[in-house]
Amino acid sequence: RNTMGGLIKVHTKSPFSYQGTDFQVGAATYNNYNASVKHYHRTSEKFAFSTGVFYEHEGGFFKNKGKNDQRIDKLDGLGGRFRGIYIPTDNLKFDLSMGYEYSDQGGYPYGEYNKKTGEYFEPAYNEDSKYRRGLFNMGLNVEYQAKHFTLSAVTGFQNLRDRMFLDQDFTTDTIFTIEQKQKLNSISEEIIFKSKEGQKWEWTSGVFGFYQWLTTKGPVTFYEQGVKNVLEHNINSVMPKDPPMNMKFKDNSLYVDGVFDTPVLSAAAFHQSTLNDLFIPGLSFTVGLRLDYEKNKIKYNSNSSTSYLFTLQTPMMPLALNQTINPILKGSLSDDYVQLLPKFSLQYKFNKNNVYATVSKGYRSGGYNVQMFNGLVQSAMRNDMMTNVGNEAIETLEKIKENPKLPPVAIAKIDEIITNIESFTQPEPIDIEKATKFKPEYSWNFEVGSHLTLFNDKLDLDLAAYLMNTRDQQISKFERSGLGRITENAGKSRSYGAEAALALKITDALRFNASYGYTHATFTDYVVQEANKQEGIEEITFNGNRIPFSPTHTFSVGANYLHKLPNRAWLDYIRFDAQYNGAGKIYWTEENDVSQSLYGLLNGKISFIKGNAQADLWVRNALNKDYGTFYFESAGTGTMKGFMQKGRPVQIGINLRCQF
Hints:
The chain is mainly beta. The chain has four helices and 41 strands. A hairpin with a 5-residue loop joins strand 4 (63-64) and strand 5. Helix 2 (373-401) packs antiparallel against helix 3 (408-424). The model has no long low-confidence stretch (mean pLDDT 91).
């Protein structure tokens, strides 16, 4: 589900093939340390299990200048895992995995960044920003081996509870904060029938079901500077100047509450067939089809309450109106999608090599941006405010007109003011669905490539070239007001590129690896309309611009050397590992006006091995490269500012491992 970028399959040690206890401790600069113990045990020919626990602590890499240089990104995490495998018969297997982890960490080390000058300022904000999470996962895989097919049923369950507290203006000003809590439960089931390998006709059929319950509470609190300098300023800046009008909040803080239920239901049926040795030995053709259904819902309840003073300067007398409003947005929305996702693949195998070509359709489901509701409540607040102001002001002016001593000129002026007030205080329509909903993303993917094993298995070479045409691409960005991160749809985009990777065995002791990827990802049809004070609605086009967060180049170069010491030496082996990884250029915005140039990180490790014991000395970012990992822009302070997160500096550490 939603695997636009492919799947990663993780294999852990099986307690049937590996027994013993693994113990590990580690320590590193920046007050980092960790410890873990894992035990693998086979009780009989039918049952084996593994279990383990871990703890880790990070002292933090970044300082907060707004809180006496306290470390921002401290972390404490602990957890455990259990896996049990039961094989009652030769053709039936039950594989159960359970894991829980708890983490409590600081975070969000965003420092202000001036994109015009390139000047970066270290993080400085006055409220704590932190994240706490408890995560439980459980999976059960039941596999039955029949004579001509394999049947497997995979059941998954996840429970997540987390809390995020964020100083959302990221400055030392007291503007606004958000506290978001999530409660999530999800359950999935996939049943797969699969033919045995090595047949002329290989096939896979299956069904998939998924349901997720998610409740999100995301209240935002505006403090005095946020109320006075941001909210009041934003409202008064659009007030008419003739006659002069002004609004002032009575309270020094404003609380915007929000509770959202966003359940998701997904179901799919799929089939894939492969015809082997088609026309000639080694040639195979694969065709697959997946029917995917997804239903998204949102039940929302977002509200606030505030009092304010509205003043209106008229030629006859000033008006001062005290008002209290309680804007509420409460309701529900839902949407569903049905997709047919085909796949075609042609492959030719020769010896240990192959060449292939694939065509497939990709799909990522849509949803709703719950963090947009804080801004929508502000819009509802302005509407209620303007409606109340308009009604009372017009009623007061109509009473003034009843004065028989007023000259016709004054009455005409009052009528003009009433007309202005009526036009100005008309509520703006709020389209909640349009404001919060983002559509699914669709793509057609084309790829050709080859996997080669050459020179008597000494060289493994992977080559690939691809083209991806995407419609309604989902773009993740910060909402302009600074009230949260949201997903929006671009129009169309195109991505093409090539990748190459090699692994070379120079000798039994010396190995070399390298990889390189090139991506050219651009918007082909992405035009937005934004309000402009001078020109009204302004049309902005991003056509031809690079897609944010997509690096143009990625590369990796590495080597490892295993040195065997003479018998009776105090060590058995010394192993040297070095890796240089790079990425860039990376654009951070749709405008392509902020970017991270190509950079590389050097990592290294020296391992000392004696029997089942090992000591590792390692270094990360050995050259202490300065680079950015994330950038966004926000108007949460009242003016648009950019914020950047830097990469971690050089770090040195040691790991000690023992198996017994």
